[in-house]
């Protein structure tokens, strides 16, 4: 009905990509770019097709073209960063996220991406700096407050960091009191600061909504053990240790279990 329909051709290209018919996906997307070479979304789709097809040089070329055509937009930098991150190239990804922030300092979600990739690389100081910069721009950015609080709870350094973690967790909880992830963060901050009754209350609420979440079970298990509820704590710690994947707290959960 409409051979030049951008949306139809884009949808067809994505369909072919899902079916792993990459040459057909490329053909459909290139037909759109013939009429509008500056269509950044379609060019990103094409880069994604090449990435899925493991044609990495071509994928990088398309993402680079987005940056070239729109250097003041974060979109191309984020696409390139995501591409590098998926391949374990954290340093390159971090540089691209930083470039995205430079292009658009008001794009707060990119600060989160930068913080998280620094955490993946165990560069905790750099991660904290990224979150603090986001909060300096918008103090009520509760996601950054929650993530930074969680980071400071696990890597406090000094007592001052734990005080900051509790402050941040409370600010996030004030905005999102019913969010189980926020409840978990505040509960763990209370535990780390020695307020175990408050920790138990918050962590029980969080676990009630996220019953299978391994980290929430770890936090609640530790708080229950500390409160003398060893059998209940043991069950939650078992769930956390049994979870698939490598987590930094698994060793502590296992040690606590062994000592019960």
Query: What is the tally of helical segments?
Result: 15
- CA(first)-CA(last) distance: 71 Å
Q: Would you count the extended β strands for me?
A: 0
Let me know the largest β-sheet.
none
| Radius of gyration of CA atoms, rounded to a whole number | 23 Å
Mean pLDDT: 96
How big a fraction of the residues is strand?
A: under 5%
Query: How would you describe the shape?
Result: elongated
Helix-strand pattern:
HHHHHHHHHHHHHHH
Oligomerization category of the chains in this entry: single chain
Q: Uncertain regions: pLDDT < 50 for 5+ in a row?
A: none
Q: What is the helix content?
A: over 70%
Class based on secondary structure composition and strand pairing: mainly alpha
């Amino acid at each position: 009905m409409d051979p030049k329909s951008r949306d139809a051709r884009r949808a067809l290209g994505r369909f072919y990509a899902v079916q792993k018919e990459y040459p057909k996906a490329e053909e459909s997307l290139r037909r759109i770019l013939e009429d509008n070479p500056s269509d950044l979304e379609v060019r990103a789709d094409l880069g994604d097709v090449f990435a899925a097809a493991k044609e990495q040089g071509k994928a990088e070329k398309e993402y680079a073209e987005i940056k070239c055509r729109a250097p003041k937009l974060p979109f191309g930098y984020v696409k390139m960063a995501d591409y590098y991150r998926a391949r374990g190239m954290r340093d390159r990804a971090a540089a691209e996220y930083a470039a995205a922030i430079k292009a658009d300092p008001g794009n707060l979600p990119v600060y989160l991406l930068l913080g998280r990739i620094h955490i993946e690389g165990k560069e905790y100081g750099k991660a904290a700096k990224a979150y603090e910069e986001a909060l300096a721009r918008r103090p009520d950015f509760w996601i950054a407050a929650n993530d930074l609080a969680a980071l400071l709870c696990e890597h406090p350094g000094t007592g001052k960091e734990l005080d900051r973690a509790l402050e941040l967790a409370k600010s996030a909880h004030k905005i999102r009191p019913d969010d189980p992830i926020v409840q978990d963060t505040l509960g763990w901050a209370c535990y780390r600061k020695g307020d175990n009754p408050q920790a138990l209350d918050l962590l029980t609420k969080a676990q009630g909504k996220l019953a299978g979440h391994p980290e929430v079970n770890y936090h609640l298990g530790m708080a229950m053990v500390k409160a003398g509820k060893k059998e209940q704590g043991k069950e939650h710690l078992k769930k956390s240790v049994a979870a698939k994947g490598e987590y930094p707290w698994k060793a502590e959960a296992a040690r606590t279990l062994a000592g019960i």
